[in-house]
Amino acid sequence: MLTRLEVHGFKNLLDTAIDFGPFTCIAGANGTGKSNVFDAVQFLSLLADKSMMEAAQEVRGVHGERHGDPRDLFWKGFGSQRLRMRFAAEMIVPLAIEDDFGRATKPTTSFLRYELEIGYQDPSGLDRFGRLTLLHEELRHITKGAAKRHLRFPHSAGQFRDKVIVGHRSGAPFISTDIDAESGSPIVKIHQDGGSRGQPKPAAASRAPATVVSTITSSDDPTILAARREMESWRRLALEPSALRSADRFIDPQVMGVDGVHLPAALYRVAHTVAGEDPEQVYARVAGRLSDLTGVQVSDLAVDQDEVRQLLTVQVRESDGMVLPARSLSEGTLRFLALCVLLEDPTVRGMLCMEEPENGIHPANLVPMVDLVRDLAVDPMTAPGTDNPFRQVLINTHSPGVVQLVSPDDLLFADTALHPLEDGSIARALRLRPLRDTWRVPEGHRTYVTKADILPYLTTPPGAQTTLDLGDM
Question: What does the alpha-carbon distance between residue 59 and residue 53 come to, in Å, rounded to a whole number?
């Protein structure tokens, strides 16, 4: 669970600090840079599994295509010789993990702060784009005593905090960075989980193609590995109608992709693996959610197994008895169906990032859509488990209807603020502000908005030609 994100120098994020709860909605006009928060989360997730250059290319890619200059990721106000971006992520990591060799292990402590600084080196020789350089990397624990101060969202201490924050740590951090006295270059050190016992393993950072976290593959460093697993679980959903409409072969993966591919296989697996339940019960719950949508006449659904073609297909039965493949549903309904499957899948953990989930949804169906994405997130008042999977949801929107349905505690409002550049000019950077009188406003701070500041989300827009007056009733 990502509880706090700090970013400086990435795209238009300057001194940005966000405290996350189980569910967060960022609202703002197009062009403010709301999506850059998603890019930052995705970039950190990619850095936990790929080289820095691969991560930079993928986060800028379209439909998986790699392209672009890594300099595009940096804040444009920096001088060409001072390109830097800094990240800090506070996270609660999984209590049980497997290494890349299938061996089970667990972290020494589960509440961690990860810090990362990346620079840029100009191209040389045949290199056209230059490369990203690792300047600083650190991973250290947050004590159980400090957890209450760091977890600012409302939660149950006994049922939630004490269940997910366990273990202890003293002494050195798990990863640290020092500056070599002779060369002046950064040296990254890995410290054993035993604390001060054992010698740290140093490595020169100047030529490192990847972060240290991404190189940890075995159970020898379980806490660093747990941090890697947590960051890998931060996913950006981009549900595509073509992927959602495709059938699955019997041999296809049974985990739904971020674009919605393998939806039938995932639903089939979930329906047949939920402990103590008949598959029909799972199918009935999904059908019940679908029937909440106005205009969708679904009475039940199931995954059809075509033994001849060896294909799995989601089929829906309408209220008049007609059976149709799910691919006949509208794009918005298909996306809703995919989220229903994720809701039923207890193996889906981590952060789910969704941009404008209301797209393709009729205004009359905003209530069930908002209820669904909110229900995907863990309930912090009860203990995480199979019935309350430990995951969180981040969405963005510019829809007044969504803003009016989301709890004030879950809202952040995006706009831009002016920042002076080194050459004396002015540029705009993303600004995120919570609603006044919510837990997201730090004590003594005035960095908030009031209802008067967000009137476009709460009132009929000027010039509206179709309105409802009491006299029309």
Answer: 10
Cβ count within 10 A of residue 23: 22
Instruction: State which amino acid sits at residue 255.
Output: V
Contacts of 306 by beta carbon, 8 Å cutoff, 6+ apart = 312, 313
* 133-158 tens-digit pLDDT: 999 999 999 999 999 999 999 999 99
Q: Write down the residue that tokens 């006009």 correspond to.
A: 29
Q: 143, 210, 141, 135: which is closest to 177 by C-alpha? A: 135
Q: What is the DSSP string of 137-200?
A: EEEEE--HHHHHHH--S---IIIIIHHHS-B---SS-SEEEEE-TTT--EEEEEPPTTTTSS--
Q: State the Cα torsion 359-363-366-367 to the nearest 10°.
A: -170
The answer to whether residues 67 and 60 touch, using CB atoms and an 8 Å cutoff, is yes
- Three-class DSSP category at 106: coil
- Alpha-carbon gap, residue 227 to 231, rounded angstroms: 6
CA distances from 227 to 1, 8, 166, 431, 457 (A): 10, 21, 14, 28, 38
Buried b (16+ CB within 10 A) or exposed e, 116-146: bbbbbeeeeeeeebbbbbbbbbbbbbbebee
- Name every residue whose Cβ is closer than 8 Å to that of residue 457 and which is 6 or more positions away in sequence: 27, 400, 403, 404
Least confident piece of the model among 159-173, 298-312, 455-469: 455-469
How many residues would you count in the chain?
473
Q: What is the pLDDT of residues 237-276, one digit of tens each?
A: 999 999 999 999 999 999 999 999 999 999 999 999 987 7
Q: For residues 339 and 391, is the Cβ–Cβ distance under 8 A?
A: no
75 or 155: which leads in pLDDT: 155
> Do the bridges between strand 411-420 and strand 248-249 make them parallel or antiparallel, or are there none, so unpaired?
unpaired
Given phi > 0 = left and psi -120 to 50 = alpha, else beta, which region is 41? alpha
327 in Cβ contact with 340 (< 8 Å) = no
Cβ-Cβ contacts under 8 Å for 39 (sequence gap 6 or more) = 10, 11, 59
Q: Collect all residues with Cβ–Cβ distance below 8 Å to 75 and sequence separation of at least 6.
A: 8, 9, 10, 11, 12, 13, 14, 85, 429
Neighbours of 188 (CB within 10 A): 22
